[in-house]
Fold each of these.
Amino acid sequence: RATGTLRALGQEGGVTQWMRTLAMPLQGSLLLANGWLFGGGSDGSFYGFDSSTGDIKWSFKYNAPFNCKPVLSSTRIFAGSEDGHLLALEAQTGRLLWRYRTKGPVRGPVAVANENIYFGSGDGYVYALRSADGKLLWRNRTGAGVQSVARVDDSLLVASLDNFVYLFSLNGSRIWKRQLPGRVS
C-alpha cells in the first residue's frame, strides 16, 4: 500500500522543519493561503494543514480521488474530484458546503469573479456556478475536455484538449476561439 509524505523545509528566521506521513500520496497541486496548506489525496481525502507546524487541522473523506488545483475564495475551498464533482468546503473546518456534478473529472483551477465560480470539466464544458450554493448559472461547450479556466479582466480564458483556447465573457458568451500550434497538456 502506498503512502505519502508531506514535508516542509526550514527557511531563514528559524522556521521548524516538519514532516507528515499520510495514508496515500497527495495529488494535483497544493494551495498555500493564510497560514494554511490545502491538498487532496489519491485516497479521496482532502486536508487542511497548519503551514507552520504541518499539523493536520482537518480532513474530509470523500469517495473519489482528488487530482486538482484547489482555490480559496473568502472562507471556501473549491476542489475538483476525479468523479466529476466540484466541491465547496469550509476552509476552517473542512465541512462540505455543497457539490456540483459534471460528467468528467474536474482537475484544473477554478476562476472566481462576482460571487461566482467558473471551472472546466473533462466532459468538455465550462461551468458557471453561484459560489454561495452551487446553483448552475450557465454552461458552455468546448470541443473536448477542459484543462484550465483563468480569469482575465472581465473574461475567462479556457484551455481545452481540442487544441483550442477560448475566451468567454463572464455571462457565458464565447468571444473568440483560437487554435494552438501544439497540444494542451
Amino acid sequence: MISLLRQWLGKHPRLRSAARRIRSFIPGRHSVSTDFVQLSSADLESEAGRLRNSWQADELPARQRVLVDRQLAHYRAGQCVDVFDVLVGAIKKLPRLNGMGSLLEIGCSSGYYSEVFGIAGLPFTYAGCDYSPAFVELARKTYPGLQFDVQDATALAYADAQFDVVISGCCLLHIPEYEAAIAETARVARHHAIFHRTPVLPHQSTMHFRKLAYGVETVEIHFGEAEFLALLSKHGLALVDAHTLDEDVHQGVKTAVRTYVCGKIKT
C-alpha cells in the first residue's frame, strides 16, 4: 500500500509537496534543510565567501548517509523513490543509450547513485567526484571498486569531452560560482549533461539563501529559471527534456525542483 502511494505521489509533484509539508509537522520528523534566511545583495558576497567550504564539514557524510540508506533499502525492494526514479528515467530516455559507456557524477556525495544505476541496469562505467574529502573517503569505503576523486566543480581536472554523460548531482545550488560549474560540466561532457534536482523560480530572478543542511550552515541558490536556461545555452548545452520533482507556492512565489536533460551542441 505504501509503495503504491509513493508511486502515485511520484506522478503528482504538487501533491507530493503538500504531503511533505504535512509530514514536517509530525513529531519526531526532521527536515534535511531548515532555517532558511534570504540573503540581501549587500550580504551575498560575504556570506558566500564565509560558507564556501561548508559542504566539506566532516559530520555531513554520516548524517546524509542515514537518509540515503533508507532510500536505497526502499529502492532495492522495488519501491518508488522519486529522486532516483526521475534521474534513472531521464537517463533511460537518452538516444543511443547502449552506445555510451562512461558517466561522471559531479557532487556525488557518498557515491550512492552508483548503486542506484546498478540496480536499474544502466550500461555505464561510473565515476564520481565531490568537493568534500570526507564524502569521497566514505564513497571509496562504501564502493571500493569504483573511481572517486576530490574535485572542485568549477575547475575539474578531467579532459574535454571525457565522459559520455555528466550529471551535476544536486550540488550546483551550493556553489556561488555556479556559472563556472555549468561551464565545466558542459566541457567534460561528450554527449549529454544532466542537472539533477535543481531548485528554480519559474517567474522570478535568482535568489540566494543561508540555511542549515543536516545541521550545517550553508548557502542555497534558487535559480531564476529563464536565467538558468540561458546559461545552459551560453555554454553549449541544448535543453532536451525537463522533469519536475516538486512544485509549490510559498508566500505567493512559485517554486519548482526540476531535473534538466541537455544535449551537447556540436561545434
